[in-house]
Amino acid sequence: MPDLQKKTALDDDASIYRKDRSRTEKQKWEEMDKKQRRQYFADYYLRKMLGMAAGIFAVFFLSWHFLKPADETVLYVAVVDESLDKEKLEEMTEDLCERFGADGKHKKVLIDDTFFMKDDALTRMEVYLHSRQLDAVIADETVWRELAGYGFFKQLDEMPEESFEESGDTYEFLETEGYLDSEDISFEDHEVGMGKKAPYGVSLAGSRRFKEMKAYMEHPVFAVARGTENEERAELFLEYLME
Asked: Would you say the pTM of this structure is higher than 0.85?
């Protein structure tokens, strides 16, 4: 029976070749001056090292991108034509993050006071409403009526019966005309502000918290954004404002 452990002639030759190659490589290195060694290193080793580093970085980046927690906005409030006190706003945001179990980093509460009617507030709100990003709006009563006329707000009397009642507080509901959405009217007819009169907002006149933050609004009104998926948090935010 042949000895399976016995090396063949090919194995011996391969070993010799490896030694010769190793010795030749060493001899080449010893024969080079500093400039030649730097060039040799750059040509044969540096490129491989950079390629390996790039591969490792790519794997790390893709792993981080797909495995990191997805960012989420648990409540988005648009404040129209107002510049809120920054310290009070930061305090309120932290309070709401704590109430909603948000870490403020991956899960956030955004109370955005960069909406101004003279700029692009209408366009931005339309986009946010369409993508269901907007949850609530605070605006002065005159602006609130205009926005309600565009159909931006949810009718509060169409929300669940327990809405706005769990805290035991009494809210001052405000009514105004909404958007007339009908297939029976012609293209020329004016639909804005021609809908039925309904409660689209709650007065914030009794909100101490908001009064301490605002600078310009004389009659602030709270409204729930049409199509919001965070209806419950919007209501809890109102409760917080009215505490």
From this structure: no
- Name residue 141's amino acid: E
Distance CA 237, CA 141 (A): 19
Q: How far apart are the first and last CA of the chain?
A: 94
Report which of 153, 143, 159, 136 is spatially closest to residue 195, judged by C-alpha positions: 153
Here the tokens at position 215 are: 């600078």
Tokens (6 digits) for 58 = 């790519």
Residue 143 is which amino acid? V
Contact call for residues 78 and 112 (beta carbons, < 8 A):
yes
| Integer angstrom CA distances of residue 191 from 136, 145, 195, 200 | 23, 14, 7, 17
Summarised one tens digit per residue, pLDDT across range 18-60 is: 444 555 666 666 677 777 767 776 666 667 777 777 777 666 6
Which amino acid, residue 12? D
Q: How many CA atoms lie within 13 A of 203 on its CB side?
A: 11
- ∠ CA(243), CA(165), CA(213), 5° rounding? 25
Neighbours of 8 (CB within 10 A): 8
d(CA 86, CA 178): 33
As a whole number of angstroms, the distance between CA 157 and CA 146 comes to: 19
